[in-house]
Amino acid sequence: IFKFLGAISVDLGKDRIRPYLPTILTPLYRELNSNYAEQDPTLKNLSQEIIELLKKLVGLEAFSLAFSSVQKQANQKRAMRKKQRALQTVANPDIAARRKLKRHKNKAETRKRKIESLRPLHKAKRHRSHTLKDLAMVE
Fold first, then answer.
1. Residue 93 and residue 102: Cα distance in Å, rounded?
2. pTM score > 0.90 for this model?
3. Entry's InterPro entries (predicted)?
4. Quick check: is 130 in a domain?
5. By the 8 A CB rule, do 14 and 58 touch?
6. Are the C-beta atoms of residues 79 and 34 closer than 8 Å to each other?
């Protein structure tokens, strides 16, 4: 998709690409700023190359305006999601408590995995659940 966006921008040219610049920059910006673990470095490099191409194509001033608007929009969305999450903890405390318990459980399991990888002879104790579902013989 990034190659397609680059090809379209070159094909449209300097004047016809300007209205579509924020739309094109949005996925490129998202890829550049993502910090998830399984990130593909080739995608990041490709998005950087296309951003440089767009910068040369439309000029630094127009590019900077579009890029800053995309940045601002992304930050607003992030702040909105954070605010929604905070409001949900107040509005639905049971859902928030469940989410918190799940997060703590995952953190504990991650810690145990890390201990096992660092010290292979040491086995971390696993939490045994005694619910009926866990005790049932399910195939």
1. 14
2. no
3. SSU_processome_comp_20, UTP20_C
4. no
5. yes
6. no
Mean pLDDT of 18-32: 92
Asked if the structure places residue 32 within a domain, the reply is: yes
Check whether 134 has a pLDDT greater than 90: no
Of 38, 67, 62, nearest to 51 by C-alpha is 67
Whether 64 shows a pLDDT value over 70: the answer reads yes
Cβ atoms of residues 49 and 3 within 8 Å = no
CB neighbour burial string for 46-78, b if at least 16 within 10 angstroms, e if fewer: bbeebbeebeebbeeebbeebbeebeeeeeeee
115 close to 122: Cβ distance less than 8 angstroms = yes
The residue range of the domain holding 94 is 1-118
The number of folded domains in the chain is: 1
Residue type at 98 in one-letter notation: R
54 contacts: CB under 8 Å, gap ≥ 6: 6, 9, 17, 21, 24, 25, 63
Instruction: Establish how many alpha carbons lie within 13 A of residue 117's alpha carbon, considering only the half-sphere containing its beta carbon.
Output: 6
